[in-house]
Amino acid sequence: MTFSIVARDEATGELGVAVAAGQPAIGALVPHGFSQIGVLASQGLPNPLYGPQGLAQLGSGVNAACTLERLLNADKARAGRQLIILDRFGRTAAWTGADCDGYAGHLRADQVAVAGSFLAGHGVLQGMMNSWLKSQGKPLAKRLMLALLAGEHAGGDVRGIHAAALRVYGERRYPDLDLRVDWCETALVNLKAALKQVQSASHTAFLRRLPVR
């Protein structure tokens, strides 16, 4: 139903999660995160409870792999779930249940993990991963956006992409970026346009005036 990426910028320590899907309003259900703790994406048949439960585990010092194991062990419907987790050190963990729809899978590398179901094929995941690796040195939000676009270019969700979301967490106690497109035939085009606007000089100056903690 979705393809997503969780990643960490080694230079800044920022954490990010981005997702695109054929389902509407996935930004409310799939991506989760908290500053300097971790990020995760719960998809397939999402379990939104993985968000608060997983972040509580990560916040208490549990690593990504153990957090994933604990969440899955407590979920009798885990065969239909897909989950990728990244902790504040960039350690990742991933799960693709046997009952996930269509082509489903995940890939992991240092500081990044990607996953998807209902995909056109493995090339979607590989395209996202290749994009991430080739975009080193760019800002995290830009790299996440490029990864989603690469996934779409490789075939994306077989039902089309109608919703997307992108979040970045830095030093603030709230997301540095929290962008969503809940339903649109050009969801990634609109998400890219929103990202351009929030990175404008005027909006950046506005954000600098806000409390951080």
Uncertain segments of ≥5 residues (pLDDT<50)? Answer: none
CATH architecture heading: 4-Layer Sandwich
What kind of sheet is the major sheet?
Answer: 6 strands, antiparallel
Tally the beta strands.
Answer: 10
CATH homologous superfamily name? Aminohydrolase, N-terminal nucleophile (Ntn) domain
pLDDT averaged over residues: 97
Question: What structural class is derived from the secondary structure elements?
Answer: alpha+beta
Strand order of the largest sheet: 7-8-1-2-9-10
Rounded to the nearest angstrom, the radius of gyration is: 16 Å
| Morphology call | globular
In CATH's first tier, which class applies?
Answer: Alpha Beta
**CATH fold topology:** Glutamine Phosphoribosylpyrophosphate, subunit 1, domain 1
Q: Approximately how much helix is present in the residues?
A: 25-40%
The end-to-end span amounts to 36 Å
Protein name: DUF1028 domain-containing protein
